[in-house]
Amino acid sequence: MKNMFSVLFQDAWNKFMIFLKKPVWAIVAMLPIAFAGWMCFEFTNYVGVAGIDYNYIGYSGLFIFLFQTFFKFIPFESFFGFFAEGPVLLPFALGCLVFIVYRLVDVSFSKQTPALSGMKKSDQLASLASFVVFEMMIALVFVAVFLCAAIILSIIANVAFGLNLIHAMIVLVIITPVFQLIVVVLKQIIRNSIVAFCVSFSAFGIFLVLDVLSYYPDQQGIFPVFGIIHLVLQWISPAHYGIAGIVGASFGAFIINVLFLVILGSVFGATGMLVAGRKGVK
Amino acid sequence: MKKIPVLCLLLIMLSVFTGCVPNLEESEDVVFLTLEQGAFQYSFNYYLAIDKEIYLEAGKRHSFQVFKTITSYVDERKAFFPQLDKLSIVVDGTLEVTKPDGEMIKVESQPFTYGAGSISDPAEIIARRSLSIPKLKNIYFGDKASEAFESYQKELKLYEAEMELYNREVEFFNKAAQKLEEKRTALQEEYSRRQEQNRDTSDLEAENERLMLQEISPPQKPEPMSEHRADVASAYEIQLTTGVYTIRIRNKDGLVVEGTEKKLVCYEPTGETLPGYHVIPYVIWDNHLDSAHNYSVIYTNSKQNLIIRPFIQERLPNGVLNQSKDSQYINQLSVWEKIGYPDDLLVEVSGQGRTEVKPLSPMVAADTQSNNGFTVMPKEEAEESGYEVLPQIDPISAVVVPVKDASGTFFIRLLAADKTEIQGGAREIKIVGKMDYIGMIIISICIALLPLMAWFLCWFFIKTPGKKNQAG
Prior knowledge:
heterodimer, A: 282 residues, mainly alpha, two-stranded antiparallel ribbon, B: 472 residues, alpha+beta, 28% helix
C-alpha cells in the first residue's frame, strides 16, 4: 500500500517537475499578482482618516472601473466584504478565475490527461489519483507564489491579508482537481477535446453566474431556488470566502467545507471511473 | 448522444437567464407597513405582496398598517419599494391570524397613530445622513390614538404660539442689540476724540457703565416637542408568542384581500452578541464607517487621531433579515443588528511599543460644519476650547486612539470592567501611506516578476525526470 502511494506520488511529482520547467504557469500567475500590486496601492491611496473613503470613487481609473462594473452584479455590501480585511482578497478571487480557466484549457487540450478506457479498475484509480495529486501540486504552486507576493505587499503597504484569503487559498487547492476531473470524465464520454472544453467551461461559467446570483440580497423576482443554490455553493466556492467576507466562516464550518469538498471529489472520481469503466468494457 | 449534454446546458442557461431577471416595472401592490417596538424601533418595515413571510419579534406589541399602493424597482437598492408619497389606500377590515394549532384570532382594524421623535444618536444621524428622519417612540390604538392625536394638536398649537412669541422676542432682541451696539460705537468714537483733545471723559465712562448694565439677554428658545404624531388612520394591533402563524385580511364585505395571505414568523431574540466599533475621524465625522466583525481591519492614514466607539450587536435568527425590506440594504449575509452602546467598558490600546488601558469617556458633538457631519471631541476639550456643543445630539462613550503621525499597526481589545477580554472585540488598526502612480507601477511590476523568477530557478535547477521514472 505504502509502495503504491509512493509510486503515485512519484508519477505526479515527475509530471509536476516537467510542468514547472514550462514558463506558461509563471505568465498566468503574473497577471493576478500585478493586479494585486496595483489594487493594493490603489486601496491605500483611498484610505482616509477613518478607513477607505468610498465617497471618492470616480476619481481613480481602476477603482471607478471595478466599482462601476461590479456594483451592477454584486451589492455594495458584498463587494465591501472583499475589502473588510485588506485589498488582496479580490485580486486573488479574480486570479482564481484566470487560474481555473488556464487549467481547464490545459487539461482539455493536453494529451497527458489520464485515458481511463480500457484500463483495469485499479489502474484507473491510480491514474486518477496521480492526476488529482498533480493538479493539487499546480494549485499549490499558484497559491504559494500568490501568498509570497501577498506577504511582500502586506509588508510594503502595511495591509492585512487575513484569514479569509487563507481559507480561499486552501479551497482553491481542493476545488481545482474537482473541475479538472469533470473535464477528464467528459473527455471520456464525448471523446472530443473541444466539446469537452466547451461544456466544462460553460459549466464553470454557469457555476459562477449562479454563485454570484445566489448572493443577491433579495430574492424578489429571482427564483427561490437560488436560496438553495446559495446553501450548496457556499461550501464549494472559493469566492465564498471573498463574497461572504462579512460572514466570517467559523473553523468548524471550514472543516465541514473541506470534508464536503473531499466527498464531492470522491463522488466525481467514482462516477468518472464507473463511466469510463463501462465504456472500457464496451 | 453527444448533443444531449449541450442541449442540457442550453436549457439550464435559458432557465437561468430568463428566470433570474427581475420584473422592473411599476405595479400596484399590497404593502404591510409594520411599526415595531424593539431593535427595529427606528425602522418602518415594508412587506410586499411578493413576500410570503413576515418576521416579527415575539412578545412585543406591533402595529400593522396595510396599504394598497404603487411599488417600483429602486436600482440602487436592487429591490422593490412602495411609493408611499403616491396614492395609498388603507386596507381596512379584519386580520385573521391562525395559530399553529389551528385556532384563529380575529383582529379588527382600529384607529391608530404613532409618536416619533427626532434622532439624537450621532451614529444614526451619520448613517442616515439626515437629522429629519423620525425615531419611533410610541404606538397608540383605539381611543388612546384619538386622545394622543388631539393632545398632540393642542401641544402643537401651544408650541407654535410659543415659537411665534419667541420669534417676536428674537426680532425685538436683535433691534435692541443693534441700537445698543450703535450707541456703544458712538460712545467709543466720542471717547477717542476727547482723549485726543485731552478733554474730560468721566461722563462717557459713566454712560458706558450704564450701557453695560443695560446688557440684554437673548430670549430662551422653547423646548422642542418631544414627540410628533401622525394623523389617525386604521391599523391592526398584534402581540404574539413565538411560533409560525398564517395571516390574511378580509375586507368589510368579508372577502379575502388578494396578496394579504402570508406566513407570520414570530421569533425569539437569539441573545448572541458581538461587539463592533464605529470608526470616527477626529476632525469631522461625516462618513458612516464601522468595523462590525473581528476580521474588519481598521485602516487610517495617520493624519488625525481616531475615535473608537464600541457598540453591541445581536445576531438575529437566520433568514429574518432576508425578508425585512428595511434591512435588505445591509445584505442577506448580515444577520447582526445593532442593539446598543456600552459606556462602562475598557479599551486596551497597544502600539508604538506601549500598551494602555483606557476607560470609555464621554465625547460630545460640536461645531456642525455641514448638514451631514460634526466634530466629535472629548467633553473637557470642548469645554476648554470654547466649542459650541450641540445639545440636540447625544454624547457618546468612546476612546481616542493616538494614531496621529504614527506608523505601523495598533491593536485594540475590548475589556470588561474587571479587565477580562470581551470575545470578538479585538481589532487591528493599520496605518497606511499614499503612493504615486509611478511607484505603484514599478512595485507592481517588480512583484509580478516573482513567478518568472521562480520559473527561472525551476528551469535552471530542476533536471527533467527520465522516461523511466515517468512511467511510474
